[in-house]
Amino acid sequence: MMAWPKPVKPLLAFITEEPDDINTSDQFKEEIIIPINDGGASDSEFSDDEADTSTQSSRNRIAAILKKVDTIIQKITGSAAKRSEYDFWAPKIEDVPPPTLIAGYGIRWNIKFQSRERGYKGRNVIHKLMEIERDRQDLEGGKNFYDNMEVTRSDWEVVKRLNDIIGEFNFITKKMEGDISSAGMMLAEYRWLKTYLHQRLASPTDTEFASMYRKMIGKTDNYIIEALNCDVIILATILNPTYRLTMIQMWFPSHYSFAETSIKTKFAERKLEHEEHTSPKRPPPALEGNQELRRRDHDAVVFFPNMVDSATQDQLSVYLSGKYNLPIDKSGEALLWWKEHSGEFPILSLLARDYLACCATSASVERCFSAAADICGRDQGSLASLTIE
């Protein structure tokens, strides 16, 4: 018997209890976006210096905005009086009250995403609270609770644009979690993620995030290469009835020959193993008497001349031809598909049960962020795709 990889379920980090004393002095170092350094020589050092200065300025501006917004949200969530004040004004200012604020601490990018998303939805309420605090300070004096910080409309737009980007990663992470055959979806999701980043990079409104996009694209390319070099992921992709071998042929043609050889080899091995443990079937009894029926001329007409006779092909060829194709929006239901068609594809269903049991991990998404900013820890490399082997 062959040893199959143990499934690994992707999990987001747990939310720990917030401390009573909030110290915001050094909680935002991870938000600094790392610029690109490809090591290439330039024709003009002056142009390079000018570009580096522009990138540094944009990076510092975004980091300052994020730090300011996060600090204000943490101050509100860290004070029972301010939370009550927020809850009081929320239904009075917004027709649909915004969700309760949460503080985004530490390295958990998904919690930071949710914190800023809720902050953006409640930005008008936050503005009201800061306005009330300024009026109180003008009348009573003393220290401003928000340290005299201001969050402009343009600042909130930067937060929204960044969250729009991160939102796609958050969606993919949620999609790939749970009891689904995520290993067979990895290559397709990586390709979509790369396409999405290229679209954002080409957008004229996202020039501030260009260096971040390039870093994230580079990291995504690395993970695509790792996935393509992983036999388990290749076979899981082929055994996903949404993609099969055609997806690799269309999107990753350089690995098509390897993928085709791999599935044929595994199919032959499992078929031989299955036949060794299965007793031979007895042939059906022959029909007695003359069973010849009258035939008419039009009985010999072939209405579907191009249809492949599945009886003349083995089940692997029939499956790879695309029979009973599973729609893309149901690609996570591959195991259910195999359960329904196990009678027609008995050998392949055994392979599918093993390979589609492998689950992807969200670590590669986190590492993609690590390439753009120190948002996630850099000690999670052991969760790369090859580890599942």
TrEMBL record:
Domain HAT C-terminal dimerisation: 316-387
Keyword flag Nucleus: yes
Cellular component aspect of the GO annotation: nucleus
Domain of life: Eukaryota
Subcellular location as annotated: Nucleus
Location of region: Disordered: 38-57, 270-291
Keywords: Metal-binding, Nucleus, Zinc, Zinc-finger
Keyword hit for Zinc-finger: yes
Main location class: nucleus
Compositionally biased spans, kind Basic and acidic residues: 270-279
Molecular functions (GO terms): protein dimerization activity; zinc ion binding
Transmembrane segments: none
Protein name: HAT C-terminal dimerisation domain-containing protein
Gene source species: Puccinia striiformis f. sp. tritici PST-78
